[in-house]
Design brief:
The chain is α+β, with helices and mostly antiparallel strands. The protein has two domains: 164 residues, endopeptidase fold (from Nostoc punctiforme), CATH 3.90.1720.10; 122 residues. The protein is 55% helix and 6% strand. α2 runs antiparallel to α4 and α6 packs across α7. The radius of gyration is 33 Å and the shape is elongated.
Length: 378
């Protein structure tokens, strides 16, 4: 895919879209189109539609990938259990065979202990023999029971393994379908952008930048982030997660990537919090659905800011109205204004953890804010 293709995407909306996840409003056109040219607002709307469709497919891909990992582990465990059950059943059959050979080689017809007692010349000896026979019978019964139970367990595990394998194959097909949808949407974006002139591309860039700046000003002025200049300290784990994310600045975005050399948006947030010692779900939709919500006015560094109505993008809050995230294909991990995409809300992976004292924000590398801000989910 061309570098020019991946350099542009639509961003920005009114505050209502930012805070309440209402549909993203289109940008106004910033220039009168020439003959045969399309308005910038129309181009942005089309790009928005294609990227959102790709976002949804990427989330499906990531979710299927996580489920596939779990199913592979389940299949492996079932196969190990099946091997153990089959070995036990084999041992049981060998033990039963030994008993059968012993009985055949002895060539005796076994009377009941009661009959042996009646016919015995030495009743005490018969009583002793009865005890031995009873014990031998119990051992034979236990051997047969183990054989039957082992075979039944092996059959059950074999059936479970077959069902798990079928589910794994179904997930693999679902993952491939989602991947193909992502590729198809990105090819549409490439075709759309490849047809634009240099002036149209420049207009898109200016519209993107102005939209992000306008959205950030509106969000800050609204007071949704709390009192101006109010600084909050992260938890100990939140600080570690944020330091990790800042160290990844400059690494490329790759959809489906979880690091360490490349990331998509939720791959970065999951890895950062995992390094900090707190496991969180893989996808941005799962992070939004499963982690405790926190109001924007109470954001502290390390919290996760979730974007778009379907929770298809996520970033780590840096503080001061900025976030660290992996924006979209063709970009790199960077620092952006919090409102560079339409905000859905925020979640906190460790809501019960206290804030640390004496917190100092991590030092940002040169060029940390360089590049496009528009998010494309992963």
């Amino acid at each position: 895919m061309s570098g020019r293709l991946l350099r542009w995407v639509c961003t920005g909306s009114a505050l209502s879209a930012l805070v309440t996840a209402a549909p993203l409003a289109p940008y106004p056109a910033h220039a009168v189109p020439g003959p045969g040219q399309r308005p910038v607002a129309e181009l942005l709307t089309d790009l928005q539609r294609l990227y959102r469709q790709a976002e949804e497919s990427t989330e499906q891909y990531n979710a299927a990938e996580e489920q596939l990992k779990d199913k592979r582990r389940e299949v492996a465990e079932l196969n190990r259990g099946l091997a153990r059950a089959r070995a036990a059943a084999h041992d049981g059959r060998a033990a039963a065979g030994r008993l059968a050979r012993q009985q055949y080689q002895n060539g005796t017809v076994e009377f009941s202990p009661y009959v042996r007692l009646l016919l015995a010349r030495n009743p005490q000896g018969a009583l002793d023999q009865r005890h031995v026979l009873h014990r031998a019978g119990a051992e034979r019964a236990a051997t047969v029971t183990r054989l039957v139970e082992g075979a039944r367990k092996a059959d059950g595990l074999a059936g479970a393994a077959r069902r798990a394998l079928a589910a794994q194959e179904s997930l693999t097909q679902r993952q491939k379908s989602a991947r193909n949808k992502v590729h198809a949407r990105l090819r549409e974006v490439e075709g759309l952008l490849a047809a634009l002139s240099a002036d149209e591309l420049a207009a898109l860039r200016r519209a993107e930048e102005r939209g992000a700046e306008r959205a950030q000003r509106t969000l800050v002025a609204s007071g949704a982030l709390g009192p101006a200049g109010a600084g909050r300290a992260p938890s100990a784990r939140g600080a570690r997660a944020l330091r990790y994310a800042v160290k990844q600045i400059g690494k490329p975005y790759a959809w489906g990537a979880e690091g360490p050399s490349a990331f998509d948006c939720s791959g970065l947030t999951q890895r950062a919090w995992g390094v900090a010692g707190r496991g969180i779900p893989r996808t941005s939709q799962q992070q939004w659905a499963r982690l405790p919500r926190v109001p924007l006015r109470k954001l502290r560094p390390g919290d996760l800011v979730v974007y778009f109505p379907k929770a298809t993008h996520v970033a780590l809050y840096l503080g001061g109205g900025k976030v660290v995230h992996a924006p979209r294909p063709g970009t790199r991990v960077k620092v952006s204004p919090l409102a560079s995409n339409p905000v859905l809300g925020a979640v906190r992976p460790d809501p019960r953890a206290a804030s640390v004292s004496g917190y100092r924000p991590p030092r940002l590398p040169a060029g940390a804010t360089r590049g496009a801000d528009g998010g494309w989910a992963g």
